[in-house]
């Protein structure tokens, strides 16, 4: 099984920069990079059908499964990804959501240098995910976003971030597969909503996250129409 690169947190951020030459030889960075892919079931949420280079997207705090689904789509298409500030992240869960572990670098505990870690990662990786311990100041966010635009990278944050392209949230969570008090869980249905600068009205999709495959999957329209009649369902709020 492939493994992710784990980079020491507080004192070893220079390792990120040392990866630049290696990655550059494997993946050419374009002056005008293409949109980063997202799972097909989520593409209708995004005006461009994917994640815009140079943009930041804020995910609902705790939405780790959604974060992994987005990382999975890009990494499977060959993009390197960095995840900062999630020491509890499970590699089994990441791989289950389709993340290519050989194109994933982890900075689990950057401590107070999390912004420096994100800025260094933006020099190297097309897709950077961070869980900020606090909302950054406008100037801090602006400097990182300038780095993203210069390098053609995209930022995903688990939590608030100023000046974002769009915010992603989910709700109406229902687990499928439970019969009358018994049965195996086969998937979790959620409604994912995007609100952003270029979406006058919020956009929503109903998907399985995860589906039986472990990945995000579309729900057939007839299933959505009949969903309210399918009882009992275990309702839950979670990630």
Q: What is the strand tally?
A: 11
Distance between the termini: 25 Å
Rg over CA atoms = 18 Å
Helix and strand pattern: EHEHEHEHEHEEEEEHE
- Low-confidence runs (pLDDT<50, min 5 residues)? 28-32, 180-184, 231-238
Overall morphology? globular
Helix content: 25-40%
How would you concisely characterize the structure shown here?
By secondary structure, the protein is of the alpha/beta class. It has helices at residues 14-26, 64-76, 91-96, 114-122, 138-151, 221-226, and strands spanning 5-6, 56-59, 81-84, 104-107, 127-130, 154-158, 166-176, 187-196, 199-208, 217-218, 234-235. It is built from six helices and eleven strands.
Detailed description of the structure:
With 239 residues, the protein is α/β, with parallel strands linked by helices. It has 6 helices and 11 strands. The protein has helices at 14-26, 64-76, 91-96, 114-122, 138-151, 221-226, and strands at 5-6, 56-59, 81-84, 104-107, 127-130, 154-158, 166-176, 187-196, 199-208, 217-218, 234-235. Strands 1, 2, 3, 4, 5, 6, 7, 8, 9, 10 and 11 form an 11-stranded mixed beta sheet that branches. Helix 5 (138-151) links the parallel strand 5 and strand 6 (154-158). The radius of gyration is 18 Å and the shape is globular. It starts with a strand and ends with a strand. Residues 28-32, 180-184 and 231-238 have low confidence and may be disordered.
